Amino acid sequence: MTEVLKRGFPGMKSVKDMPIVQDAPPPGGFPTIRIERRLPSTGPTGVAIFAGLAAIMGYGFYKLHEQRQEKRFEADEILTVRKIVHPVLQAEWDLRYLEHLKREREEEAKVMKNVPGWKVGESTTRHRWLAPLESWDKRPLV
């Protein structure tokens, strides 16, 4: 009964009574099925990206080298100017020191004028004089 409903052949007793229908390709065959992977090109290749980045880094290192050379030249120029100006500045500091020493001795003479046997500018101790921590030649120039 199912065969009649399914296939519409009344009175079919077995499958063997069915007509033989074989599927075959159409004349000329089936069209080919494309199975390879074709992705669209979405940008530059890895080699191109690597070459671009290498070029950018090379340019950056070149500019860094130029900048360091310029800074070194400026530092050498400043050092040369300081070496040239140093004797003049040292002479100014020496003059200031002598003026300060002169004022101190005048003040000492004024304060100690009533003390018998006092000699202005003479050391009262036997210890040798030590330079202050900030000596004159180590002061920052300019």
UniProtKB/TrEMBL annotation:
Molecular functions (GO terms): oxidoreductase activity
Top-rank taxon: Eukaryota
Xref: Pfam families: GRIM-19
Record-annotated membrane-spanning stretches: 45-62
UniProtKB keywords: Electron transport, Membrane, Mitochondrion, Mitochondrion inner membrane, Oxidoreductase, Respiratory chain, Transmembrane, Transmembrane helix, Transport, Ubiquinone
Subcellular location: Mitochondrion inner membrane
Cross-referenced InterPro entries: GRIM-19 (IPR009346)
Membrane topology: Single-pass membrane protein
A GO cellular component annotation in the UniProt record: respiratory chain complex I
Coiled coil: none
Family assignment from sequence similarity: Belongs to the complex I NDUFA13 subunit family.
Free-text function comment from the UniProt entry: Complex I functions in the transfer of electrons from NADH to the respiratory chain. Accessory subunit of the mitochondrial membrane respiratory chain NADH dehydrogenase (Complex I), that is believed not to be involved in catalysis.
Designated name of the protein: NADH dehydrogenase [ubiquinone] 1 alpha subcomplex subunit 13
Organism, scientific name: Chlamydomonas reinhardtii (Chlamydomonas smithii)
High-level lineage: Eukaryota, Viridiplantae, Chlorophyta, core chlorophytes, Chlorophyceae
